Amino acid sequence: MCRYLPFLLFVLSCTGNRIQEKNVFRYNQADGIATLDPAFAKNQPVMWTSRHLYNTLVEVDDSLKLVPGLAQKWWISEDGKSYRFLLQKGVCFHDDPVFPDGRGREMKADDVVYSLNRILDKKVASPGAWIFNGRVDTLNPFMAVNDSVFELRLLRPFPPVLGILSMAYCSIVAREAVEKYGKDFRRHPCGTGPFMLKQWAEGQTMILHRNPRYYERDQDGHPLPYLSAIKISFFTNKATEFMEFRQGRLDFVNDIEASFKDEILTKTGSLRKEWEGRILLKKQPYLNTEYLGILFDPENEWVKASPLRLKKVRQAMSHAIDRKKMMMYLRNSIGTAATAGFIPAGMPGFDSAKVKGYGYDPDRARALLKEAGYHPDSSGVITLKTIPIYAELGAFVARQLEEIGMNVAVETMQRATLLEQIANSRALFFRGNWIADYPDGENYLSVFYSRNPAPPNYTRYKNAEFDRLYEKALVTTNDSERFRLYQQMDQLVMDDAPVIPLWYDMAIHLVAPGITGFAPNALNLLELRKTRKRD
Question: Which domains are seen in the chain, by residue range?
Fold first, then answer.
């Protein structure tokens, strides 16, 4: 039987269109929310709401360690190909009309099987199917041993699979709700999470209420979550969002719009004095590497005709960029200059002493260009392709490369156009970024595995030694040894220079006074179960 927590006095009450807000956490999603179906959680807004509405077997804590979620504990077979999970007891789905008497039933192992199979179902067409493709057993990947034990079977060992199970795609859903609502399940979510959907006026407001039957408790035995509700607005203009925050109508802002970052932050990334005491600044390493990509495919006719085909030219470009200056003047020191590898700071196994990238050294850059036989008059103009919000960054990079004698032009275009050109090998030099899907360095190194298409291998990088080490790492269960292999691969990529890492990102939040138990993490997940709000 499911535990039933006494229903707390609800402090979010609606009278017409007016909402009395107390103990309600309010934030904005400028990009909107397309769906509440976690099988389509391919972007941050949907990932955040999935975290409110659903649970996964395994979770990532603030230190990026994998901890129990809906699974109390798990066991891994000796051959590394089978994972068994013991499920938590007393976990119930949200109350919903699909259940008898509208009361959510207890979650069982069959629900896990159904939810994960749904990701692979071609009829569903989940963009998350890649997380299991080529990794799980093709005949019977998911099995309910009994109501309380779930088993995952792999084709071959793959240690990062636990991190994959923490992704929003792997949220556990109620089969009854999916089958009843069909495509409209996107508006009728039914999970086991700490909050439940109460109201959604698309493009205007979304309100989530506290789940009074949620299974988790804090260390003192108090039921979670502490908040009574979450209210999400959808202002598309970031200036409007910031104004709402300044006037006390939002409780936090994710990231700072470039147009007003200088108003809030000093060049060293601290809060300006006039804002001290009025807002809280929260910063945390964010598993996102911002980089410049260079098409590597030697069979491509454009590559054959470009000086970027030469390793020393690519290495010269990496030495030409003053990342520390770039961080201070373009980013207000939000993030860390990327002078190590492609795997970012904050990722388990990151070690800048073992992976050496490129420091600012224009003299060395000029020497490398000379050794490569590069001459600007015969090499033509190199075009850096990016999107409008990175135009200033593009101009900075172009100036830096011009200082070592390279001719560079910046071309801006819409994101969809740029992605299409990159995916079809029509962008020789482009700005990109890679955000971690799960907290394992393999996720970053998959970007360079030659057997991977684009995405993720946008540069078409190919190195036989890299591929050998990558395949070895996939069957290495010892973390220390796997991290050593990751570092060797990362160094190979740095030496070949198909990418120029610029900075390792930082999650930055502006938080209203009175909000406690709220902290960013390296995946920039919005965790509100233990958040409190004082009057």
Answer: 13-234+512-533 (3.40.190.10), 286-506 (3.10.105.10)
CB-neighbour burial class of residue 82 (10 A; exposed 0-12, middle 13-18, buried 19+):
middle
Q: Is the peptide bond before 225 cis (omega within 30 degrees of 0)?
A: yes
- Asked if pLDDT for residue 14 goes beyond 60, the answer is no
Q: Taking the CB of residue 73, how many other CB atoms lie within 10 A of it?
A: 10
CB distance 128 to 167 below 8 Å: yes
DSSP E strands: which ranges in 16-125? 18-20, 24-28, 58-60, 66-68, 71-76, 82-87
Please, how many CA atoms are within 13 Å of residue 421, restricted to the half-sphere of its CB? 22
Averaged pLDDT for residues 176-203: 97
The order of strands in the sheet holding 24-28 is: 24-28, 229-233, 205-210, 195-201
2/518: higher pLDDT? 518
Where do we find the tokens 């073992």?
A: 354
How far, in Å, CA of 14 to CA of 28, rounded? 20
Residues in CB range of 223: below 8 A, 6 or more apart: 5, 214, 216, 217
Query: In the predicted model, what is the mean pLDDT of residues 447-466?
Result: 95
| Residue pair 106/91 in contact by the 8 Å Cβ criterion | yes
B/e letters for 358-382, b = 16+ CB within 10 Å, e = fewer, are bebbbebbbebbeebebebeebeeb
Instruction: Please give the model's pTM, rounded to 2 decimal places.
Output: 0.88
Beta-carbon contacts of residue 382 (< 8 Å; ≥ 6 apart): 306, 307, 308, 401, 406, 407, 408, 409, 428, 429
User: How far is it, in rounded angstroms, from Cα 104 to Cα 242?
Assistant: 39
Judge contact between 145 and 163, C-beta under 8 A.
Answer: no
Q: Angle of helix 464-474 relative to helix 479-496, nearest 10 degrees?
A: 160
